[in-house]
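WARN retry 2 of 3 for item q-0093 after timeout on previous attempt; input resubmitted unchanged.
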Amino acid sequence: MDFQLVKLINTLNISNFRELVCSYNKEKYNTKLVRIIDGPYDGGNDIEIIVNGDDIKRNLQVTVQKIGYESKLEEDIQKAKANVDQYNYLRNLDFYISQSLSKEKRNKLETEAERKHGIVLKIIDATIIANDSKEFTTLRHEIYKHHGITKDNINGPVSKQDKIVFDILTLNKNTIGIRKNLIYSFIFSFLYTNPESSLEDIILSINSKFKEPFDKHFLYNELNQLKSKRQIKSNAQKKYFLSPSKYKEINALYGKIELEEKLLNDEINKFISDNSIECKPSDLLSKIHKIYAENYNIDVEEIKNTSNSFSSSLKKSFNDLKTFFARCGINKDDTGNLAKKLIYLCSSKEYLLKIATTNLFTNLYNSDKLEAYISNRKIKILLDTQILIRLLCIYYKPNHDFEEHEFKAINAFRKCVNTFSEKIIVQTSSDYINEVVGHISEALNLERFLNLPYLQDFGVSKNVYFNTYLNFKKQLLIEDDVTLREFIFDVLDIDEEAEFTYDQFHQQCFSQLKYYFEIENIEIINHPNYDNYDLGRNIYEKVLKGKNRTTRAKINDLKTALYLSDKSKHIDPSDQLNEPTLITWDSSFYGVRNAFKRKSQLNSFWYIYSPYKFIDRISVSNFKVEPNCISHNIVALAESNFNYTTNNKSFF
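OK item q-0093 returned
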């Protein structure tokens, strides 16, 4: 359910709500002739519907009342009966209310209307209209229009306050951790009941829990992560199952949950018996769960509104319980004390709060503005030298299963970028391409060592291309007689017979690399002369004091930091600052960024991610779990795994 839309409907005035009901019926009956007729000669109806030239003679009533709507409904039923008797209207009543009623309440009122008055009552409340807006898309725009929310409000620039909230929800380390652990929990839960499941079975199950499906490669990598932690295993048939220790852990956890639920059931039974309440234990338990869930259904707007607090939520719970007890035959004067006693009893049940707060977290992701922000935001990333070096090898052998961790990361990163290509702007600098050229030249200089009988005693070289050449020969991916020079020229697609001076070779290399990267939609930037260069250099040198780097590498990294910190370079078409991201394994950039932030001229924020961390964030950025999939078992699994994998005391 779209809770944000429901709340917008709840606050419509009577005039706007009638217009919305007209639009609803135009969509429902596929007619343009729906009009408001509320007046002295309307036969008691608020709206008239003409289909193919004829009034379909349905009784329709509209209200925005929060209190006393049942009295109005009773009056409207009497009007409907009169229309049936006098004007041959259909024996029905469509009752539109801008508030949200429980399913139980709707069923009760509809049953009473038919049983007592012979009228087929259908109540269409805010929840039903919001759900139907998925099919009748014009309704959503009509609701927005009545609240002064235009398409530009949703799809256009967001406020600074909204942007902070959205970035926390999509990019913050802790929210990423919670989301990933919820995904892991669904995987564990599925494998607990479905051992030896295929990748396809797992993907089908997991994606059924989310409104936006996850990419197959992302889930495959997450399964491999769980395998590396020895939490799941797979057999020769590529069927996945829980490790014995994980199965034992989950079995014990589920046993604890079952006991907690039994204890609560026992206490609710005793509470009902001690207070002579005429209701089924399951009805009261259902009410408790519903109250906890509903009172934690806040949205992005409410996060920013400091007037919302737990006290107002508690007040709503209190009033809901009083109403419930009154319907169960409890004297109205006693309902308040009884509600207090039950709230006190439930307050000690931690798992009720955990389920509710997990629903709160997942419901925040059902915001239309957040969805539009994620869809419209272009993520600008800049690749450093070490990323480019390995990308070149992957371009050369795109289908090869590289064994090295860094290559696996880059391969996964490239697939991720291709999957989300519409959302990502990829950049690098001409300076970093020149560093790749230097790395290639170093590899060629190492060729003379290949014939040494004690080459193996040197261990692994720091040069990626030299190591890749040796690995490819070992794996028979290139012929045994292919020289290192021939291999590199083949990678670069340069004529092996050509003769170059050093400068000519450097220029040819640069041109070929630039060509390859541009084919991969990587934008090449050329650094200008930065006004804050001297200030940045002083800060950079202090941070990197004692680090063993070439002068050229230091200058290139300094320019990168200045570029990322220059707000004027990162303003998007809507005139909003779009903080860029550096993709690197070089942890020294964290120190540089933090030092820059202390200077007003350089304090524009930028993100720093390794390839795998970037994949984590982009893959779960459009995270929309179905709230009804959040069970006590899932919450317990998520908390157990989250606390195990982080330094936080609690998932909550």
